[in-house]
Amino acid sequence: MMRSIARIETTFLTGITMLTLLLSVPIQAQSTGDVVIGEPYVTEIVVDDVAQTVIVRGELGDSCTELGTIQQVIEASTIEIQIETTRPADAMCAMMLATFEETISLDTEGLAAGAYTIIAHGVTAPLQIADQAIICSELEAQDEQSLFTNDRICFLYPQEYGIVSNDTLILASSTEVFEGQRVALVIQSDPEPENTTLEAITEQLAADFPGMEEWNTERIQVSGEEALVTDSITGMRYLALLHDGTLYTVILQPSGGDRYPEAQQEAERFWKSFITTLGFIADDPSEE
Q: Is pTM beyond 0.90 here?
């Protein structure tokens, strides 16, 4: 009886092994020597207009397949991301899907400002390329956005938002409440700042907020100027930008985390509008 059970187990395991081998055939079409070239299955792309990057998410055919060469092809207002995959031609792997996420920096140098479409293996998303410097006299209100301007700056904000300002402070906030939270953005200008470089500002923040190294901090371009952006663990986003000797500090809340997903989504919508339309009156030729 024990021998019968052993034979049954051996036959079952052998069958499983053979089935695995049968399923482990290369799924790619183009072979180059010892390597098979193919393409991934893309499920989602996320475009960051400010950082000019694309996050591509998807699946690979099996555990032997890896991402290969990534190219960018521009035709008119379309930017196509072409991703190759590679796997050993004779590899025998179980057909197990493997997920991937790849962040790709876009080469937008020399491209005119405007709306573009990103395509990555059948999945599309919009991209907005802003001018190096926003010209305030050319910035106009749109269907769902109003124009704010004073003697220093200009930007677009959602029509349904309220906004108040004085000589050095601007507050824009949502009239709608999201999960008990209002989205708010505060802009403060200091024409005589103590710190006159982003490096000095970074050092000051690190001194004022121990543990800042755990925050998500990066440098971005805003209307032709380099800016420091950091997401604090307290749920606020902080931006510092120097222009013509004036320090502009911007605080957005809520930001970061997933405690208030609806409010966070609305905050990101407002941030994207603000950061891509912010301009400085001093850069406007019509003011000279």
A: no
